[in-house]
Every structure is written in C-alpha cells, then in structure tokens.
C-alpha cells in the first residue's frame, strides 16, 4: 500500500494545528503594539505640527484681531482624547491676554483639532487638572503646565504594552 498511515496523518494534522495556533496568538499580541505605536506617532506628529506653527508664527486669517502666542497639545486626566490648540491673545502676545495654556469654551475658540486614542489605549501620567505641552514663538521653546522635561505614557488598557513620550525644554521630543 502507498500513502500515509492513520497515525502519520494525525501527527501531521496535530503539528499543523499547533503551529497555526502559535502564529495566530503571536499575531494577536502584536496588534496591540501596532495600535500603540501608531497612536504615539500621531501624538508626536501633532507636537511637531505645533512646533512648525510656532516657527512659522501662524496666524489664523479668520480672527485678525488675535495673535497666536503658543501652539500645543492639551491632555485631560481620565480621557482618551487630546486637543491640538493655539493660545490666543487679543492684540499682541506681550502684555496681552495670553495665559499659555488651553482654555476650553472661550470665544474665539483655541481648539484647532480634537483627536482620540484607539479604544484599546489610554494615557498614564496625566496630572489632575490636565496637562498642556506648548511651544512659544519665535524661538520654539517648549513649556508645560507641569514643568519640563515632561513625560507621559500611552499604554494598552490591559497594561501589556506602553510607550513613553518626553518633551524637553529645547523642544526635543523623545520617544521610547
């Protein structure tokens, strides 16, 4: 007779099933890392956009009587979203109404964009009352409502993976 015996066939099928299960489990575990690093890259991208707007001294043409005195990100404790904002001052920034922090609900709005983390992620290390990281023109110096250097963590809700972002006073953005 030619072909495989029943025992040989069962062994081959068993080995194939075990290898498939390992591959599927590995793929599922790396999904959390991919989501984590994707969202960390979005946050770093918006920090860099804030630096760019600061260096360009961006001015919103729809509100000509106001100056943008700082650009940055606002994180709120316990929330999965963050706000890309501009700190506005009537007239000039020096001696004006700039307070170098995000003010929700003011007119004109300081909100440029509101973004959310993936539902499988959350922030860690955000102080009560929130955290503002912003850049002040024209030197693109970084500052924060909690001092510098400032670090915050994005992590998976199950705590398996975490990514730390640090912003230093010179505007350097460090990720790990």
List keywords for this structure.
176 residues, alpha+beta, minor pseudopilin epsh fold, five-stranded antiparallel beta sheet, four-stranded antiparallel beta sheet, 29% helix, 32% strand, membrane
Instruction: Give the N-terminus to C-terminus distance in angstroms.
Output: 61 Å
Could you tell me the mean pLDDT? 90
Uncertain parts = none
Largest sheet, if any?
Answer: 5 strands, antiparallel
SSE ordering? HEEEEEEEEE
Keywords: Membrane, Transmembrane, Transmembrane helix
Protein name: Type II secretion system protein GspH
InterPro entries: N_methyl_site
How would you summarize this macromolecular structure in one to three sentences?
With 176 residues, this protein is of the alpha+beta class. It has one helix spanning 6-56, and strands at 66-75, 81-90, 111-116, 121-124, 131-136, 141-144, 150-156, 162-167, 173-175. The strands form two sheets. The chain has a five-stranded antiparallel β-sheet with strand order 3-2-1-5-6, covered by helices on one side.
What can you see in these coordinates?
This is Type II secretion system protein GspH. It comes from Candidatus Jorgensenbacteria bacterium GWC1_48_12. Keywords: Membrane, Transmembrane, Transmembrane helix. The chain crosses the membrane at residues 6-26. By secondary structure, this protein is of the alpha+beta class. It has one domain: 3-Layer(bab) Sandwich (minor pseudopilin epsh fold). The chain contains 1 helix and 9 strands; from the N terminus they run H-E-E-E-E-E-E-E-E-E. The chain has one helix at 6-56, and strands at 66-75, 81-90, 111-116, 121-124, 131-136, 141-144, 150-156, 162-167, 173-175. It has a 5-stranded antiparallel beta sheet, covered by helices on one side. The longest helix has 51 residues, at 6-56. The protein starts with 5 loop residues before the first helix and ends with a strand. The model has no long low-confidence stretch (mean pLDDT 90).
